[in-house]
Write a structure and sequence with these properties.
Blueprint (H helix, E strand, L loop, with lengths): L1 H62 L2 E8 L5 E6 L4 H7 L23 E4 L2 H7 L2 E2 L5 E2 L5 E2 L5 H4 L7 H13 L17 H7 L3 E2 L1
Parallel strand pairs: 1-3, 6-7
Antiparallel strand pairs: 1-2, 4-5
C-alpha cells in the first residue's frame, strides 16, 4: 500500500513538473513573439520615417537650388545676384532695387524664367531712341541690324552665333564676368576654341 502511494506521489510530482515546464515555455514563447512583433513594427516605422525624411530633404534641396545672374543698365543696384532656380526676370529686377526712371521696359518679358549665368540688360530710353535699338523678350539689347551683342546677350542668344554652342557661350559669359566687357569683337579671339577661321565666320554676326 505504501509502495502504491509512493508511486502515485511520484507520478503526481512528475505531472506537476511537466505542467510547470509547459506553462513556462508557452508563456516565454508568447513574450518573445510579442517582442518580435513590436520590433518589426518599430523597424518598419523607422524605415517609413527615414524615407519621409529623405523625401523632405530632396524637396528642400530642389527648392533651395540657386542660380547666379547678372543685371546691368537702368536698375538701381546693378550687380551679380544669387536667386532661387525658379526665379523670373521680375524677381531679379526687384532684388536689384527696381528700375530707374530712364529704363525702357515696354518690350521686356518680366515673367521669363531666368537661367544660370544669364545677363539681363535694361536699356535706357534715350539709348534706344539715339541708337535705333529694340529690346528682345529677355530685356537684352539687340540691334535692328540683327547682330548679337556679345557684351549683353544671354547664353541662349550667344548660341545663335554660328559655331557657338553651350561650351563657348559659357566661356564668353565667364570672360565678361572675370575679365570684363569686350572692347571689340576681336577680343573673341581670347576665348579658348575661337580661332581665326571661326572668328572669320562669326565676325559679321556680332558686335559690342
Amino acid at each position: 500500500m505504501d509502495k502504491e502511494k509512493k508511486k502515485i506521489g511520484i507520478i503526481a510530482i512528475i505531472i506537476i513538473i511537466l505542467a510547470i515546464t509547459i506553462f513556462t515555455y508557452i508563456r516565454g514563447g508568447a513574450k518573445e513573439l510579442k517582442k518580435n512583433d513590436n520590433t518589426s513594427i518599430f523597424v518598419e516605422n523607422n524605415a517609413l520615417e527615414t524615407e519621409a525624411d529623405n523625401d523632405k530633404n530632396f524637396i528642400k534641396e530642389i527648392k533651395n537650388k540657386k542660380i547666379v545672374v547678372e543685371i546691368k543698365g537702368e536698375v538701381n543696384k546693378p550687380d551679380v545676384y544669387e536667386l532661387n532656380d525658379d526665379s523670373i526676370v521680375k524677381d531679379l529686377i526687384d532684388i536689384a532695387g527696381g528700375i530707374t526712371e530712364k529704363a525702357e521696359i515696354s518690350n521686356i518679358n518680366r515673367a521669363k524664367k531666368l537661367q544660370n549665368h544669364e545677363l539681363i540688360y535694361i536699356s535706357n530710353k534715350n539709348e534706344i531712341l539715339n541708337k535705333g535699338e529694340s529690346l528682345n523678350n529677355t530685356g537684352t539689347s539687340l540691334k535692328n541690324n540683327g547682330k548679337i551683342n556679345i557684351n549683353s546677350s544671354s547664353m541662349e542668344e550667344l548660341k545663335k552665333i554660328p559655331g557657338i554652342g553651350d561650351a563657348k557661350a559659357k566661356k564668353i559669359i565667364e570672360y565678361r564676368e572675370n575679365i570684363g566687357l569686350f572692347n571689340s569683337i576681336e577680343d573673341l579671339r581670347n576665348i579658348d576654341g575661337i580661332g581665326e577661321k571661326m572668328f572669320e565666320k562669326l565676325k559679321n554676326e556680332v558686335e559690342v
